[in-house]
Amino acid sequence: MELDFSVKYKTELIFVEKISEIFGSLSLKDCFIVDEHFKDASWLVNCKKVFFAEGEKSKNLSFFEKAIEWLIKNGAERTTRIVGIGGGSVTDFAGFLASVYCRGAELVLVPTTVLAAVDSAVGGKTALNYIGKNSIGSFYPAGKVIVAEEFFSSLGNGQTSDGKAEIIKVALLKGGDLAKMVKDGKDLIQPECLKLAVQDKYFFVAGDMTDKLGTRIYLNWGHTFGHAIERCYGVPHGKAVAAGMVLMQKYLKNILPEVFDPSVLEELLDLHGVNINSDAYFENIEWHEFIMFDKKKDKEEISMVYLKKIGCPDIVKRSLKEITKDLEELK
After folding, report:
1. pTM score
2. CA distance 32 to 16
């Protein structure tokens, strides 16, 4: 007997200029999960039920339990809308919370960083950390994602470069108009580029929502080494992934016949203000111990994504022993 279930998700992507425009489609009855950095924001007057999240520190089971208790205390039901306002850590947390509360509450995400706008808020992945990064999670796309450009004007260079790294990654994976803008040094923090970045990511996600069929895995370029670096040193996610992209290209350059030149990749990242010292990570490889928590690991093998050429990603499988040996030789 075969049971054929068909569940379709749709996300409405909305771009607005001002933060104040966000609340036109929201309600005072909504439950807001808001990054604690906005505790003194004037627009919070529009949010009556607010639970403050502490960024990446919130993505754990104990904080999740506090949020569940808060929802119950505030009378949240399955029809209650959960609105996550913040960077990628907050959208990850709010998404997971909505996905399991009453087996699925309505979810709206308002990314406040460029990285969240083109990555975590639009991919449908939710997560908590447990030993490994994002080791607990679900696939639960938001019903609405509202991007307010005003949030980006207050970002520092570090947060902006994190977002640019993600845009560059997806552009080079897909190729096409956005990749040309990257090579031409165009300003990537503009609505046209942000929309193209979302479209390019959707190209890989659309037919592989649950990351099982093979196309979505390409978005993990830079993550095998990047997540290990992020967890070992506390490096911001975007910068860690950018480093992971370059390191992967350097790592595989002498192993595979066709690999996109890592020096050209570094030049493109530098062109857009994403500066990393990739050689330093090869000199001290203590971060490699965290590779064992890679979610793409199958027994002792890890499926590592790399770029053959612009618009042509691929996968190579290496064992943990091989990776460790190779990294030692690159020191």
Report:
1. 0.89
2. 19
